[in-house]
Amino acid sequence: MKNSKKLLSAAVVLSVIFFTNQAVSQNIKFNPIKPGINSAVQITDEQQAILAVRKAKASVVNILGLSKSTPTVPSANVSITVPINTEVSGTGLIMEADGLIATNNHVVEDLNMDYWVILADGKRFPAKVLAKDQFDDVAFVKIETTGLAPAVLGDSDALETGQTVFAIGNSLGRYQNSVTRGVVSALGRALSEADGSVPRIHNLIQTDAAISNGNSGGPLINLAGEVVGLNTLMDTGGYSLNFSIPINIVKESLQQVKVFGKISRPFLGVQFKTIDQADKLSSNLSVDNGAIISAVSPSTPAASAGIKAGDIVLAVNGKVLGFNNELDSEIQKYQAGSQIMLKILRETEILELPVILGEYK
């Protein structure tokens, strides 16, 4: 993974789950709901965890990036050792049996790389990048094969803080299908590069399931073996601060690729800060919620609509802004080309400004 990324490093650290209970055989059928006292088969929480991981592993792949100057890798369908000149290493998730795979944008963003996918059985295929989205750090690649095992996708909107989850991936680029266990630490997190060079990633799942370099794009799964997130970030400022993209966002992105051939994100063109109590006190503000506009980029939808630095956006289409619904997360609920109405406080005047959203390029 590139050293230039300050936050993006993700998905699962080296860990091994020891299968010590001989009562759980390879033939036991997976039950997504723990059997109750009246069930014919009783399994422990540990056994349920083993079954969940086993269910998900077949859908996890390695993604390697080789410089275009690297000699051609041997033909597909042959097990190989990872080349020593691999420059990018990540993880991917099989979405469809015909070779459609999800991963992170930062895994496959370099146009000077050739990308390869290595399946769980060691077979490998050249990969074509279909679509990328830096906003949510989602990308899709395609390999030419059939009969793959697609991941079973869950509902990330149903996640609860404290819920048990597992992260799976290509730890350090060398240890395929490594597993770590943790809980959902928080929901709805938003993070960005320290220099603000890319938009913030929204609605992230925070987990203490350990992650490490080489595992970006691997799945976060629940006890039913369902994928609820795509691992993407590790905050280098602390321990056990790891983040995953909700799988529902990945589903939405995939639908856009199928319909439009790309992932489209709306664009406003401002820099802002969400108001907190400290801002209200230090700046003597008349409101205690909203987004203070610090800069408006020229030739953007915001500039065309007449938004100015110093304006406070109070609401988007009537939805009042605050820490639970910030300006950029509200904007992302709309399609590029949509018209929205912004309620703005400019000094002492309340304005209603219509804005036609642009598209991130």
Descriptors:
single chain, six-stranded antiparallel beta barrel, mainly beta
Mind explaining what this structure looks like?
With about 350 residues, the chain is mainly beta. The protein is about 10% helix and about 35% strand. Strands 1-2-3-6-5-4 form a 6-stranded antiparallel barrel. The chain has a 6-stranded antiparallel beta barrel with strand order 7-8-9-12-11-10. A hairpin with a 3-residue loop joins β2 (about 90-95) and β3. The two termini are about 25 Å apart.
Shape: globular
List the secondary-structure elements in sequence, H or E: HEEEEEEEEEEEEHEEHEHEEHEEE
- The helix content is 10-25%
> What's the arrangement of strands in the largest beta sheet?
1-2-3-6-5-4
Number of strands: 20
Estimated share of beta-strand residues: 35-45%
Structural class: mainly beta
Specify the number of helices.
5
Poorly predicted runs of 5 or more residues: 1-31, 33-37, 78-84, 194-198
Characterize the biggest β-sheet: 6 strands, antiparallel, barrel
Rg measurement, Å: 22 Å
Average pLDDT taken over every residue: 81
Taking the alpha carbons of the first and last residues, their distance comes to 24 Å
